Amino acid sequence: MLGLGEFHKLIIDRDVSPGLYLRNDNGDEVLLPGKYAPDAFRIGDVIEVFVYLDHDERPVATTRKPLIEKDHYAYLKCTSVTSIGAFVDWGLDKELLIPFSNQAAPMRQGRRYVVYMYLDEFTDRLVGATKFNRFIKRVDVDVKRYDQVDLIVSHFTDNGANVIVNDKFQGLVFQGSIFGDIRVGDRMEGWVKQVRPDGKIDIVLQPEGERGIADSATQVYEEIRRNGGVLRLHDKSSAEDIYDCLGMSKKVFKRAIGALYKERRIDLNKDSISIREGD
Fold first, then answer.
1. Is the whole-model pTM more than 0.90?
2. How far does the chain reach from its first CA to its final CA, in angstroms?
């Protein structure tokens, strides 16, 4: 059986009046409606499609790319609230249902929410949830310190930004580690600072350790070069000016220019940094 909520590479098996029938190597079939069929094709071609249930609850394929896949998170807009729950736009003809029991708080039409989509084992339908603690994995955490990870911001607390890590784990970016404007639903890269015994992960938005210093030093050096060899920043510059220019914290910036100076690649001037002659 072809998994719902997933992409599949399938073989074009036959051309019929409703569209194209596609199959995999096991003989499982699904219809690709004619409106999604490519302009030019041959029987036997391989095509990548997304499989979901249509309005009649039948498996159907589409070449359109949805805003969310099964077992993933996305920031989606609520289009309506009905007697059975809320519906969100996920980029396909049939909207995604979020039952009331899956809502962390009552959803409102027109607002956006971080949504998790999964296949309900009782109904065999794709459904969404904004209450997703039960989907967070707290064991077998497969990331470690210094690993680069993908993040989506789920909500904020007094401690900082709560994030979903690699669409599987729960993480926190502490308030003191946030520089610049980040919002619920933002997707970004982060780095693991530590994995706690309870499975939660502390995240930073800039790499740490020797690798982090090297990456930041390269970024600073390239910015100096783009500015004609002189950058109007220095170790006394404000954290806001540094972030606006380089997108990094003052702490990381000072470590980066320290490394560049130690390598004799830059000169530290009173009100600027410049590339050392001969470099």
1. no
2. 61
